[in-house]
Specification:
- There is one protein chain.
- The protein is of the alpha/beta class.
- The chain folds into two domains: 180 residues, Rossmann fold (3-Layer(aba) Sandwich), CATH 3.40.50; 64 residues, Orthogonal Bundle (Helicase, Ruva Protein, domain 3).
- It is 37% helix and 20% strand.
- It is built from ten helices and nine strands.
- The strands form two sheets. A seven-stranded mixed sheet has the order 4-3-2-5-6-9-7. A two-stranded antiparallel sheet has the order 1-8.
- Helix 4 links the parallel strand 5 and strand 6.
- Helix 1 packs across helix 2, helix 4 crosses helix 6 and helix 8 crosses helix 9.
- The longest helix is centred in the C-terminal third of the chain and has 15 residues.
Length: 260
């Protein structure tokens, strides 16, 4: 069937064959790996994942028209779920998937944040395409303008490696911006907190006023704000982008200690 990409769903399909092969190779798939592909589109990447010999491939596609194409093209070789990925429950992720995804630009940070903030979801690896400016925020260094909430959430749980930038001509239809491929490998040891929701809330509070000194937020959060900031090693004249991932987690731990 003839398919016309939908702008409302951010559908820009990767068509560069060399890049598609490279993306699959990064996963280093073996036959026992369980693969999850988010937003497979017409199956350009799916084809190469199947060739990598995994026996267990699941794809999640929101667009029912694309689901029909995928069913016709792959005829039972993959499990197809017609669903918005943000509506999948944590129970869906009982297996540690290798995840591939050309994430819709309009919800890519929502998807990544959901995965990062879950206590129960674990992955073997994530290989994800983002709009370049979003990827730049994910891999940003502390004390830079791109350092943001998604930097902290992602780098709490993952080692993140930039693989390459992709030009618009690698896609059909061509987007107006560049894309970036990132590889996420779960950290073996992370700073444990009682509730990831607290990290979400703390980063939201701080980055809602990213140009302002953090003193006001510390005063709201802690009665002994001066003592807490000194113990963590944060100057009250700092801005949110000056506070490392580890120090944000220490803020959360101090807050949680105070709630016990």
């Amino acid at each position: 069937m003839q398919f016309r990409p939908k702008k409302s769903l951010g559908q820009n399909f990767l068509v560069d064959e060399n890049i598609l092969k490279k993306i699959v190779d990064i996963g280093d798939i073996n036959k026992n790996d369980k693969i999850l592909e988010i937003g497979p589109g017409t199956g350009n990447l799916t084809k190469y994942i199947i060739n990598a010999k995994s026996k267990n491939i699941t794809v999640v596609e929101k667009d029912i028209d694309l689901v029909k194409i995928l069913k016709d093209r792959f005829k039972g070789k993959v499990k197809i779920i017609n669903c918005d990925v943000l509506k999948l429950s944590e129970n869906f992720y009982i297996d540690e998937f290798i995840v591939y995804g050309n994430l819709p630009y309009n919800i890519s940070t929502q998807i990544l944040a959901y995965w990062c903030l879950s206590k129960n979801i674990k992955f073997k690896k994530l290989i994800l395409l983002f709009q370049k400016e979003v990827a730049d925020r994910i891999i940003a260094r502390v004390n830079t303008k791109n350092y943001s909430r998604i930097t902290i959430l992602a780098n709490w749980k993952f080692h993140i490696k930039k693989i390459l930038d992709l030009n618009p001509e690698c896609f059909s239809p061509r987007p107006k911006i560049k894309s970036t491929l990132l590889e996420f490998t779960p950290k073996k040891n992370i700073i444990e907190i009682n509730s990831p929701k607290n990290l979400e809330n703390i980063t939201k509070i701080f980055f809602n006023q990213r140009r302002k000194m953090v003193k006001k937020n510390f005063i709201k959060l802690f009665k002994n704000f001066d003592d807490v900031s000194k113990k963590i090693g944060i100057k009250l004249s700092d801005r949110p982008q000056n506070i490392s991932v580890e120090k944000f987690l220490m803020i959360v731990k101090k807050l949680e200690d105070g709630l016990k």
